[in-house]
Every structure is written in structure tokens, then in C-alpha cells.
Amino acid sequence: MRVEKRIDKPTPPIRVAILGSTGSIGTQTLDIARMHPERIDIVAITAGANVGLLEEQAAEFSPECVSIGAKGGAASLSNHFSCPVFDGSDGLVRAATWLNLDVVVVALVGAVGLKPTIAAVKTGSRIALANKETLVVAGDLIQELASQHGAEIIPVDSEHSAIYQCLLGEREEFVSRLILTASGGPFRKRSLESFGSITREEAMAHPNWEMGSKITIDSATMMNKGLEVIEARWLFDLPPEKIDVVIHPQSIVHSMVEFVDGSSKAQLGPPDMKVPIQFALSYPERWKSDHEVLDWSETRSLDFEAPDLRKYPSLGLAFEALRQGGAVPAILNAANEIAVDRFLKGDLEFIAITRLVEEVLSQVTDSFEDSFEDRVRADQVARKIAKELGAPTSH
Ligand SMILES: NC(=O)c1ccc[n+]([C@@H]2O[C@H](COP(=O)([O-])OP(=O)(O)OC[C@H]3O[C@@H](n4cnc5c(N)ncnc54)[C@H](OP(=O)(O)O)[C@@H]3O)[C@@H](O)[C@H]2O)c1
């Protein structure tokens, strides 16, 4: 077999919108745009609260529109930008459906990503999806919508990008398992008995990745891996029993696919989100970059171990929510968003995060249809309960 050789003709730059350009994934997407100015044209960017950074980004990239999080905030900011300014959730939709977009990078955190992702999918643009919460809330409905509108969803999460790459050229019937790797977060070696005294600072100190605060806490509880299992279920259309999680502390193997003949494929690289972000933009091409590569002359070990579900009950809760299906993952997600927010504000202990989620799951008794409206309703019901419940302290 020969590696394909091709001489590329110059193509016009792709028109890209970044929802959440001021966050960790958003700013790294702009780094990719700086690296490839001839290939990427940034035409829409959005912020939540960080208007100062949005202004700097707009001055550098001259987008055709911007949006900010605070509803009603656009009017007072229009003289800060030389393009139309939108706001709130409608502003995210305007940016996600801006003229002739090739790619919408959804780099928002939380279920706020759902509405603009639905809007972007309906335009048939490619979605470079970092916002896993959207697929947790309504992955079944989003995938159905994407196939109706011919929209392509390319994952940005490093694990799902790895699986996507391992699956290229393979047939679904030959896949026996997806294996998501997890670093194990900052508490892999900490004794379960001392989990009660974990501080915010300790939980925020991820050993391998620098990320936004919500995903950093989700990584410490391993709810992040649970959300990724649900994300994988919808991205790759495989049942939960074909998705496994393994701890791999070095974060070099980004995930694996096992096939029915006993062979496995893995995708490897240093922990750097710019690689999967760029892949989601460049696919089916690969663009030459100056990203760090692995030095194979260095002695290194790659370790793997099973996750300890007593330490990480969130992972078990997420698998259970996925098995129950319907609106249950949306309830899990909303409860977790509030629990993490309460932990970050000092209103909950670390171990109470998962307990609160468990409590909310048991308290929501409404029934929900399989529609976007009902997923949003489930999200709202769960958020309300999660905000009102007292902080759980013991089981
Ligand atoms: N960071 C990583 O390395 C990484 C890796 C894999 C997957 N992911 C996933 O990627 C997503 C983004 O993560 P992140 O770490 O980049 O998060 P982040 O740093 O917290 O950034 C989130 C972005 O969303 C914006 N935002 C938040 N709430 C908003 C609202 N209500 N309305 C409008 N905009 C809002 C923020 O704006 P302001 O900052 O201006 O308020 C920011 O631009 C998450 O789903 C995460 O799980 C992240």
C-alpha cells in the first residue's frame, strides 16, 4: 500500500465562527487561526462575560459579527466594535448561523451550547464540537437532525477525536469496543478516606491539561469521563456496553478502538488540545503545524489501570443515566453543572458534588418526551432542584 500523494490547489480560506472564543478551547482555536491565516477566516466570535478579551480578539481578527452573553448588553457596546454586536442566547444563534459559514466551533461550556448547536446543524455547516454537554443533553436528537440536514459533527474532545481517527476506513460491524482513556485527575493516588478534605485549589490542579474551571472539576470527579461516555455513544452510535474507560495517567494515548479480530488501534500524541481542534477544522486534510511531537528516543512508560468506582461514583452515575436514556442524561448534566458551580463558590464540599447529582436524579419524577423542548424542560427542572437542595454531607 502506498501513502496517497496529492498536490493541493490553493483553496479559499474556510469561514469559521467560534462560539466561546474567550474560553480555553476558543482561545486555542484562535491560536490555530494565527498559525494558518491563509486557511482560516474568523468571521464570528462570541464571549460570555469577558468583553475585554472579545474586544482584543475583534481588533485582531476583524470578524463580521460578535456576540456577548448578557442579554440586552449589545446596545451599550456597539461603539466598541466595528461590526454588528448581538447578545444573549439569540446572539449565539445569530453567530452560529452567520452568512456562508464552513465551520462552527462550539467551544461553549454547559447546556447553553444546545440552542446554537441546533441552529448551526440546521444550516448544514460542519460543527467542530467541543461542547460535550450538548450531546449529553440531546445527542440522540442532534444526530437525527444532523442527518436530516447533512451537517457533519467532528469532535474536538481529544478522546473522541482519537476514536474518530481510529475509525476512519473501518466498518461499524467490525468494532467490538471503544476505550476512552482518562488521566485519573489530581486524586488518582489520593486515599478515598481523605476525599472529605479536598479543597478547591487541589481540585483545580489538573496534572496534564490546562482547561476551563468546569471541565477541570469534572475531571477531578471523573464526571467528565462519564459525560464523554455519553458523548461517544451518540457520536459513534454504539451502545453503552461497547464503551469502556481506562485510566492512563500520562495522557499520551488519547483513546482506542478494539476490533472483532482482536486488533486495537490507538491515536497518540502529547497532551495538546490544538491537535484535535485543528483536525476538526482541517479534516479530511492534515495541515502542517509546529505542534510538539512525541520523542520516541526518550524512554517512557505508558500505564493503564481500571478506574476505581468507589473513588469516582460519577462515572457509574453517568453510565446508569445513559442506560436509562431519554431525559435522564440531561438531568444528570444540569444537576452536575449546578453542583460544580456551587463547589467553585464554596457552597459544597468536593464529595458532595456527586451526591447532589444523585439526589437530583432521584427527585425528578416528571415524565419527558423525546423532543428538544422537553430536554430543555428537564434541564430547567433539574437545575431548580439542584439550586434549592441543601448541601449533602453524608450518605
Ligand atoms: N478546555 C479543554 O481543554 C477542553 C478539552 C476537551 C473538551 N472541552 C470541552 O469544551 C467546552 C469548553 O470548555 P473550556 O474549557 O474551553 O471552557 P471555558 O474556558 O470555561 O470557556 C467557555 C466559553 O463559553 C463562554 N460562555 C460561558 N457561559 C456562557 C453563556 N451563558 N453565554 C455565552 N457564552 C458563555 C465563556 O465566555 P466568558 O469566558 O467570556 O465568560 C467562554 O468563552 C466544554 O464543554 C468542555 O467540556 C474542553
The number of helical segments is 14
Q: Pairing-aware structural class of the strands and helices? A: alpha/beta
Please, what is the oligomeric state?
single chain
Q: Low-confidence stretches at least 5 residues in length (pLDDT < 50)?
A: none
Widest β-sheet, arrangement of strands? 4-3-2-1-5-6-7
Fraction of residues in helix: 40-55%
Q: What is the number of beta strands?
A: 11
Q: Give a list of the ligands.
A: NADP nicotinamide-adenine-dinucleotide phosphate
- What does the overall shape look like? globular
Report Rg.
21 Å
Mean pLDDT: 95
User: What is the H/E order?
Assistant: EHEHEEHEHEHEHEHHHEEEHHHHH
Task: Write the topology of this structure.
Blueprint lengths: L13 E6 L4 H12 L4 E7 L4 H11 L3 E4 L16 E3 H9 L6 E4 L7 H10 L2 E4 L2 H18 L3 E3 L2 H10 L7 E8 L17 H5 L8 H9 L1 H14 L6 E5 L5 E7 L4 E5 L5 H9 L30 H12 L3 H17 L5 H14 L8 H17 L7
Parallel strand pairs: 1-2, 1-5, 2-3, 3-4, 5-6, 6-7, 8-9
Antiparallel strand pairs: 8-10, 10-11
Bound molecules: NADP nicotinamide-adenine-dinucleotide phosphate.
Structure commentary:
This protein is an alpha/beta fold and 395 residues long. The chain has 2 domains: 14-155, Rossmann fold (3-Layer(aba) Sandwich), CATH 3.40.50.720; 160-325, no CATH class. The chain has 14 helices and 11 strands. A 7-stranded parallel β-sheet has the order 4-3-2-1-5-6-7, with helices on both faces. The radius of gyration is 21 Å and the shape is globular. 44% of the residues are buried. The mean pLDDT is 95. NADP nicotinamide-adenine-dinucleotide phosphate binds at residues 20, 22-26, 47-50, 69, 107-109, 112, 130-133, 157, 209, 211-212, 214-215, 273. Residues 20, 22-26, 47-50, 69, 107-109, 112, 130-133, 157, 209, 211-212, 214-215, 273 line the site of NADP nicotinamide-adenine-dinucleotide phosphate.
